[in-house]
Amino acid sequence: MCLGGIFVENKGIVKKIEGKNLYIELFRDSSCAHCSGCGKKDKTIADLYHYELNEDIKINVGDLITFEINNKFILNLALLIYILPVILMVLSYIVAAKLGASEGQGIVVSFTTLVVSFLGFYIFDKKTGSKMIKEEISIKEVTPSDEIKITSCGPKE
């Protein structure tokens, strides 16, 4: 994963193909180095990543796939998810104070707004968030399994 360019990249090996559905074992990249959130400490992410193939590309089990996602999309999404709730929290406190609420009531209103905004993002993510992200992901490169020379753990046997 490289945030320096326009796109963020990740690689993985195709483990299963069902029609246009690919199931890919993604490699852990440098951004995962200090995190064990997925529960694994080896070279791959815990669950197989599902990708619906919309492109007209020949892919086989064992091929190495490089994905890319627009960096601007990720940054805008992060801004929306992490900054907007805090702004709403502050604004709700100000509005409550203008309407005559006590300081304690204003604090309760602002934290309630924070919780409601996070619940809203959670519901939005469950309904359409994943779909939006999947639309921004595309296959950049496919390396056939017989051309893969090196794995993440050294030379291929």
TrEMBL record:
Protein keywords: Kinase, Membrane, Transferase, Transmembrane, Transmembrane helix
Chain coiled-coil ranges: none
GO MF term set: kinase activity
Pfam families attached to this UniProt entry: RseC_MucC
Spans traversing the lipid bilayer: 73-95, 107-124
InterPro entries hit by this protein: SigmaE_reg_RseC_MucC (IPR007359)
PANTHER family: PROTEIN RSEC
Name this protein carries in UniProt: Histidine kinase
